[in-house]
Amino acid sequence: MSGSSRHLARRAAIQALYQWDMTQQSRMEIEKHFLSDDSLKKSDADYFHELIREIPRLVEELDANLKPYIDRNINQVDPIERAVLRLSAYELLHHAEIPYRVVLNEAIELSRTFGSENSYRFVNGILDKMGTEVRSIEAAAGQ
């Protein structure tokens, strides 16, 4: 799958995770809604399914890993930013094959697309700190 199809999967996943977080609808219900959307046809559908299956399942682990880098409770973070942070934390922790810089760039792009004007700065600051620790060898090599 191409990088752009993964990007489209992430875009749809951010929207689905936001919906899950805000409505507490079941993941299956939300997934069904997104599968009927034509915009998913060009995305990496398998990756979309993985993201919306695994992130809610691992939300406590992801939030615990993000906690040291956030200056407030995760529930006080803007819901879009929270979705981007959780998706990116999932990729940093569970997808070592995705380069650290790609995770950061995607998070910034998603924050700019869906978040408030400066949310990308907040997200970048947190993920840069987390990424340099979680992926310390990779981050050091890129310096």
Structure described in brief:
This protein is mainly alpha-helical and 143 residues long.
What does this entry look like structurally?
The chain is an all-alpha fold and about 140 residues long. Helices cover about 75% and strands about 0% of the residues. The chain has helices at about 5-25, 25-35, 45-55, 60-65, 80-95, 100-115, 120-135, 135-140.
List its salient traits.
143 residues, mainly alpha, N-utilizing Substance Protein B Homolog, Chain A, 8 helices, 73% helix
Overall shape: globular
Say which CATH homologous superfamily is assigned.
Answer: NusB-like
Distance between the termini: 28 Å
CATH architecture: Orthogonal Bundle
Write the layout of secondary structure elements.
Blueprint: H1 3-23, H2 27-35, H3 45-57, H4 59-66, H5 79-94, H6 100-114, H7 119-134, H8 136-142
